[in-house]
């Protein structure tokens, strides 16, 4: 498989480091062939995020993101079909019954922020989408409605684009199995952009 070959050739040197970020769900991974692809993808994304934070700290920048800070959870969140499947799996199989019930209740009312945001904590944190994982800001927390990439780009961290490409390419076997075509020589992010949806449009499908 072309995409897999590209990935493993270029990240072999760091594979142990990347494994440290890999969530392991052996029983579920045996049951769902798509799950290891998604968890590998997220491990590589998280590795690239850790690298970006390390680089920022070397430049004396201080990460502003912290538990309970969630102004960014009111933004439009793009994600792929596979990421939706991952959240659905998490909600149905791992999330505790109290949060499951609360999600159904919240879905029936107006939502000012992401459905999965509970007082600043993400209910699906281990399976949150790529967009949420890569969104990092230094210096001070975002103001409500602020888009730091526009208001203060120097404070917005940019984890490796190459790792982003490679992480998405790890998930392509899932789309091949689903007969969702990708073009020859297309890199992962271009494919992702062509087929992603907004998280808010997938809430009902995810929790039902
Ligand atoms: S991106 Fe902004 S709102 Fe989100 S956790 Fe970081 S500082 Fe807080
Ligand atoms: S999935 Fe989690 S991290 Fe992402 S917007 Fe929703 S609550 Fe925030």
Secondary-structure content class: mainly alpha
For the biggest β-sheet, the strand order reads 1-4
Q: Strand share of the residues? A: under 5%
Number of strands: 4
SSE topology string: HHHHEHHEEHHHHHEH
Average pLDDT confidence is 92
Shape: globular
Question: What characterizes the major β-sheet?
Answer: 2 strands, antiparallel
Ions and ligands: iron/sulfur cluster
Q: What's the N-to-C terminus distance?
A: 34 Å
Q: Roughly how many Å is the radius of gyration?
A: 17 Å
Uncertain residue segments: 1-9
Please work out how many helical segments DSSP would assign.
12
* Helix fraction bin: 40-55%
Describe the structure.
The protein is mostly helical and 208 residues long. The chain has one domain (2-207). The chain contains 12 helices and 4 strands; from the N terminus they run ααααβααββαααααβα. Strands 1-4 form a two-stranded antiparallel sheet. Strands 2-3 form a two-stranded antiparallel sheet. β2 and β3 form a beta hairpin. α4 (34-58) runs antiparallel to α9 (161-169) and α5 packs parallel to α12. The longest helix is centred in the first third of the chain and has 25 residues, at 34-58. The two termini are 34 Å apart. The model is unreliable at 1-9 (pLDDT under 50). One iron/sulfur cluster is lined by residues 64-65, 69, 71-72, 135, 137, 141-142.
């Amino acid at each position: 498989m072309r995409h897999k070959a590209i990935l493993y050739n270029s990240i072999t040197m760091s594979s142990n480091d990347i494994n440290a970020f890999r969530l392991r769900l052996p029983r579920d991974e045996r049951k769902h062939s798509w799950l290891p692809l998604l968890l590998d993808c997220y491990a590589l994304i998280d590795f690239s995020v850790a690298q970006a934070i390390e680089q920022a700290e070397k430049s004396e920048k201080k990460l502003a993101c912290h538990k309970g800070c969630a102004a960014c959870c009111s933004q439009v969140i793009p994600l792929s079909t596979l990421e939706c499947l991952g959240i659905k799996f998490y909600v149905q199989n791992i999330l505790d019954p109290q949060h499951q019930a609360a999600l159904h209740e919240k879905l029936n009312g107006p939502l000012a922020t992401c459905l999965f945001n509970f007082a600043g904590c993400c209910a699906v944190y281990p399976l949150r989408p790529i967009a949420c994982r890569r969104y990092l800001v230094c210096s001070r927390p975002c103001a409500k409605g602020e888009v730091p990439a526009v208001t203060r780009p120097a404070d917005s961290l940019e984890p490796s684009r190459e790792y982003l490409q490679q992480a998405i390419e790890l998930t392509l076997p899932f789309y091949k199995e689903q007969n969702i075509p990708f073009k020859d020589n297309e890199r992962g992010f271009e494919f992702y952009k062509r087929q992603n949806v907004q998280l808010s449009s997938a809430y009902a499908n995810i929790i039902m």
